[in-house]
Amino acid sequence: RLERLQRIVSKLQMESGLCEEQLNQADTLLQSDVRLLNAGKPPQKVAEIERDLDKADAMIRLLFNDVQTLKDGRHPQGEQMYRRVYRLHERLVGIRTEYNLRLKSGAPAAAAVTVPLGQRPRQELDEATLRYLQDLLAWVEENQRRLGAAEWGMDLPTVESHLGSHRGLHHSIEETWGRHARRRTLGGRHADTAHPCARPQNSSKSRLRHLESLHAFVSAATKELMWLNEKEEEEVNFDWSDHNPNMTAKKENYS
C-alpha cells in the first residue's frame, strides 16, 4: 500500500511540473496578446491560450483525484501535495479570469489597472459590469452543460475516475461561486441560492454526493465479487475424490 501511494506521490510531482509548464505557456501567450490589444492590434493566440487552459484544467482535475487518494490513505505528504495542486488551480483561475476580462472581452488591460476604481467613468464601470455578467452567465451555462452530460461509470475504475474528475470540477465551481459571493457582498448585495450562479454549485454538490454514494456501493460490491471469485477458485481446484485426506474437514465445513 505504501509503495502504491509513493508511486502516486512521484506521479503527482512529475505531472504538477508539466501542468505548471502548461500554465506558464498560457500566461506567456496571454501577456503577448494583451500587449497587442493595448497597441490597438488584434490578438493572435486566442485559440492556443484556450487550448492550454483547457489542458491545464483537465490535468488539475486528475491531480486532485490523486491527491484525494493520498489523503484517504493518510500519506504524510498528502497535505503538501494538496497545497501544491491547489496553488496550480489558483493560478489557472487567475489566468482564465484575466483572459476572460481582458482578452476575450477586448478590454485594454491598462484601463483596468491604472485608473483607480473611484475615478473611472460611469460608462466604463457599466461596461465592466456587463462583461463580468456575460462571463458569469457563460460560465453558468458551460458548467450546467458539463454536469448534464457527465457520465457515472459502470465499474470501480471508471467510477473512481469520474469521482476524481468531478472533485476537481466541484472545487473550481466552489471557488468561482465564492469569489462571486464576495463580490456581491462588497457591492452591498447578498449572494443567495436563487442566483443563477448557484445552479451549477447545487448541481455539482448533488453529483458529488451521488458519485460518492455510488463509489461506496461499487467498492463494496467489488470486494464481494472478489471474495466470490476466490471461493469459486477454491471449489473448482479442490480434489473432490474420496482419496483426499481433507475431505472430512471439507464436509464438516459445509455442514
UniProtKB/TrEMBL annotation:
GO terms for cellular component: focal adhesion; hemidesmosome; intermediate filament; perinuclear region of cytoplasm; sarcolemma. It comes from the Eukaryota. The gene is Plec_1. GO terms for biological process: hemidesmosome assembly; intermediate filament cytoskeleton organization; wound healing. It comes from Pelecanoides urinatrix (Common diving petrel). This is PLEC protein. GO terms for molecular function: ankyrin binding; cadherin binding; structural constituent of cytoskeleton; structural constituent of muscle. InterPro entries: PCN-like_spectrin-like_rpt, Plakin.
